[in-house]
Write a structure and sequence with these properties.
71% of the residues lie in helices and 1% in strands. It is mainly alpha-helical.
């Protein structure tokens, strides 16, 4: 990961002049997250016979994957008008939306340059298709804003592009570049897919299971923006609570919800069983991710990958479902 960090900073060397671009890029690079996607790529690569010989290539690809993720976050924050990311001011709130748009584009242009410069065509194709899928997921989600007829399947389609696709691609690229066999490639991509769903559902649940702002981001921003997450979608299916949630969706489309209205939303989602159903779905993805790891040839790598999904699942406060859970 130290090599990955060196590549990230090396992609955007300072000009050595009074350049406003340097300040923006420094702000981007100096606010690192968990670096989950590059870590996944490097972990999976250890399953292939060529991982040692291709170490530098793999570290560079890991940095490229992180750049794609970073650019998507910059653009997401512009659309959502988010003031915070990872507990710090977002690029758009600090430098303005115009600068943020161009910064995200600059990061993506560097991705293209690095993929072409080193002849990373096979992985470049995977990542190019993934970026298309990410954009389609965002468009799909945006088109469904403030729609109370949204279904769990529509939600899953949106978050596949929004979150799942890049995690699955990181796993696939790591295996592809290190020479993993076809069955192992299929298994790690399957793992990455279920990890992605678990990751996003967990994030959605934290809005309703945490009393305070979570992980450096304000709560209930998605609902305010008209994006109905899985706990809310399941709550809408309950006849006793649908009308109340529909009313709150209508209010959110007109103005920010008050603290009292946010409390009513949380109450409706809790009483309807929406939380329990979303938690059940999260647990299903956890089980499927663990099952995919059984096909891996290295038990130590499988154990680390299993630990990642276990930590995500177990980090939910008050997670366990109640007896009234309906698994359908």
């Amino acid at each position: 990961m130290r090599r990955v960090e060196r590549y990230l900073w090396g992609f955007f060397p300072p000009s050595g002049q009074d350049d406003p671009v340097d300040e923006v890029l420094h702000a981007v690079l100096d606010a690192p997250g968990k670096r989950l996607r590059p870590q996944l790529l490097l972990l999976v690569s250890r399953l292939g016979a060529d991982h040692a010989a291709k170490r530098e290539r793999l570290c560079k690809l890991a940095a490229i994957v992180e750049c794609i993720h970073t650019a998507s976050l910059i653009h997401d924050d512009i659309v959502d008008d988010s003031p915070l990311r990872r507990g710090r001011p977002t690029i758009q709130s600090r430098f303005g939306k115009d600068m943020a748009v161009y910064t995200g584009d600059l990061v993506l242009s560097r991705v293209m340059t690095e993929l072409f410069a080193d002849g990373l065509s096979q992985s470049g194709l995977v990542l190019g298709q993934t970026m298309q899928t990410m954009c389609r997921g965002e468009l799909w989600q945006y088109a469904g804003r403030y729609r109370v007829d949204v279904t769990p399947d529509r939600y899953r389609k949106a978050i596949y592009g929004k979150t799942v696709a890049l995690l699955a691609a990181a796993c696939r690229v790591g295996g592809l570049e290190s020479g993993c066999t076809a069955p192992v490639l299929e298994a790690v991509e399957d793992y990455g897919t279920h990890l992605g769903y678990l990751f996003q559902i967990r994030d959605d649940l934290l809005d309703f299971l945490s009393e305070q702002d979570r992980e450096g981001k304000p709560v209930h921003v998605d609902f305010q923006e008209g994006i109905l997450t899985l706990p809310v979608i399941y709550a809408l299916a309950h006849p006793d609570h649908r009308q109340a949630i529909e009313r709150l969706v209508g209010i959110a489309a007109e103005r920010p919800l008050t603290a009292e209205e946010q409390a009513l939303l949380v109450q409706a989602v809790r009483l309807s069983g929406g939380l329990e159903k979303a938690i059940y779905e999260l647990d299903q993805h956890y089980a499927c991710a663990c099952a995919a790891l059984k096909a891996l040839p290295d038990g130590k790598i499988a154990a680390v990958l299993r630990k990642i999904v276990k930590m995500l699942r177990d980090s939910l406060p008050n997670k366990r479902p109640t007896a009234k859970m309906v698994a359908g």
